[in-house]
Amino acid sequence: MDNPMAMLFDIAAGKGMRTVGQTNGQLSINNFGGAGVSKQEFLSIFKKEPWGINLVVGKSGGGKTALCVRLAEFLNRPVYAVNFLKTPEWITPIAKLHIEESDTNYDCYFIFPNGNTMPADKGCTIIIDDAANILESNKMYADANETMKKLSFIARHLDICFIINCQDSSSLNKQIISQTRTLFFKEPALFQMSLDRDFIGKLIEEKVRPFFDSLNKSQRKFYTYVVHQDFRGVIKTGLARGWTSAISKNKG
Question: At 106, which CATH number?
Answer without folding.
Answer: 3.40.50
